[in-house]
Amino acid sequence: MVEIVIAGAGVTGLVAAVRCARAGHRVTVVDRGPIPNHGSSSFDQHRVLRSSGSPGDGAYLHREWLRLQSLLGGGFYRRIGAVTARPVDGLDAAVGSTAKTAVVGPDSLPHMVFPENHVGVQELDAGVLLAERVLHAAVRWLRGQPTVTLRPWCEVTAVDTGAARLELSDGGAVAGDLVLVAAGVWTRGLVDTATELHRQTVVYVRPPGELTTWWEQAPAAAGLGADGTGWLLPPGAGTLLKLSATTMCRTVATLTEPADADRAAARRCRERVLAEPDRYPVVAVKHCHYSVDARTGRAALERVGPAVWARAAVGGDGFRTAPLIADQIAELAADALAA
Asked: Of 90, 130, 134, 173, which is least surrounded by CB within 10 A?
């Protein structure tokens, strides 16, 4: 049995804890707040799960999230598909690059704005993950495991990468055979990694009452708007309609940098992706922060000590790729056990 210590109770830390506990290891999860932590980067209404696009094996992740849902319960994967607007020219290549797809015309999604001369390529093994439900389901499962210890309100102030030990704000410490630092945007303040901070502004709106059923059956969508930069996650299972655009993500220096320009962009977001935008009242605007590898702009798992690994760069799709990180940590634990 390997002693695994995880700093951070977001999706990466919790899914890794589940994976390692199932492999028979002893796991301790510490977090600076409650577990799950409503202030974590992972805590949101929903996140997209696609089969293509960003790094990672999309088909594997689709199957793995289904397995996690079966194990943890919570009904958190809405398999509603995901559409990406693509130019009519070159459509054959777009369809051929992804398994289990269908082509849908803009007329079948009349409440979304498609770029001119574009159609939708719909991935069938895709949809949205109800993020808050994922975190709560993982915590419920972990609490029932005798080899798992959850330690909320334990702020990590430093990481001794040589000794594989976390120093805590109360003067204590916790060490393991293997340490994963997955504290979201706070990770880069604990270990030395080459990351940059991004802020994504998202807008939550409420659809007109007569369109509620239509929207709850609609797929997630990307490539929207005249410029093809808009995206949305549909409402359903108690969530709102979530809107944003790639142009509403920018590099920032700190978590507290002024967001006036982002608010202006948020006001224009409805016009970018929705037909009849004035019918969709804005319920909330949220500024989400995440870090990326400064060299690649992507997510990364980085070795920062002999037995210490950091998920400092989570990328824009860090939520959906959490099972891949969990697999890597479990493989490292197996190697440590065999050594």
From this structure: 90
The H or E element containing residue 264 is helix 260-273
Asked whether residue 172 is assigned to any structural domain, the reply reads yes
Q: Each residue of 149-170: pLDDT tens digit?
A: 999 999 999 999 999 999 999 9
- Does 318 fall in a domain? yes
* 74-77 own/partner pairs: CB under 8 Å, 24+ apart: 74/130, 74/133, 74/134, 74/136, 74/137, 74/140, 75/130, 75/133, 75/237, 76/129, 76/130, 76/131, 76/133, 76/134, 76/137, 77/49, 77/127, 77/128, 77/129, 77/130
Q: Is residue 233 part of a domain?
A: no
pLDDT digits (tens, 9 = 90+) for 1-10: 899 999 999 9
Tokens of 107: 């007329």
CATH number at residue 188: 3.50.50.60
Domain that holds residue 63: 1-76+129-194+296-338
Tens-digit pLDDT profile for residues 253-311? 888 887 676 667 777 889 889 999 999 999 999 888 888 888 777 777 899 999 999 99
**Is residue 239 in some structural domain?**
no
